[in-house]
Amino acid sequence: MRPEIPPLRPRTAEIVQVARNLLEELGWEALTMRLLAERVGMRAPSLYNHAANKDELRTFILTESFLAMGDACWQAVATERSPASLARAYREQARTFPHHYRLATSGPLDREALPEGLEEWAGTPFRLVTDSPTTAQALFASFHGLAILEVDGRFPEGTDIDRLWERTAELYSA
């Protein structure tokens, strides 16, 4: 069951949405509290009434990113419970929101700051299409490797990336 996340105050939710847009436009390192305040039409000190600091803002964004990825993955396995359907949904989310994807899957993750049960819920579709928790983690790691290499443009020219995704899903279907 999707975790119950307390809603943000309306103005805070608006600020987080602007921050998400800036993240996708510029990347995490370029997103500053000063720029965010400017984009939402307030002075930077007033922004801290909505997010204590950039770490808290990051947690708000990560929560939304985990929910979006989780929703996409759950929808995929509801339609067809297979690694192939999960691969398509996972890849689409990573390609559509590459900076959100990087933020959610790179570097340290402060699990204690995330809403309880969110990470487990978002990862459960991997368990639903595999035969064990270890295989589910291996599948996630495989999809993550493909996704990060693809969004960072790291595959050699001429690589059939579609076929790599298909083949990876096939390996976990056996």
UniProtKB/TrEMBL annotation:
GO molecular-function term, one example from the UniProt record: DNA-binding transcription factor activity
Assigned keywords, A-Z: DNA-binding, Transcription, Transcription regulation
Pfam families for this protein: TetR_C_33 (PF13305), TetR_N (PF00440)
SUPFAM superfamilies: Homeodomain-like (SSF46689), Tetracyclin repressor-like, C-terminal domain (SSF48498)
DNA-binding region, residue intervals: 32-51
Protein name: TetR family transcriptional regulator
InterPro entries reported in the protein's UniProt record: Homeodomain-like_sf (IPR009057), HTH-type_TetR-like_transc_reg (IPR050109), HTH_TetR (IPR001647), MT1864/Rv1816-like_C (IPR025996), Tet_transcr_reg_TetR-rel_C_sf (IPR036271)
Organism in which the protein naturally occurs: Corynebacterium humireducens NBRC 106098 = DSM 45392
Domain HTH tetR-type: 9-69
Keyword Transcription regulation annotated: yes
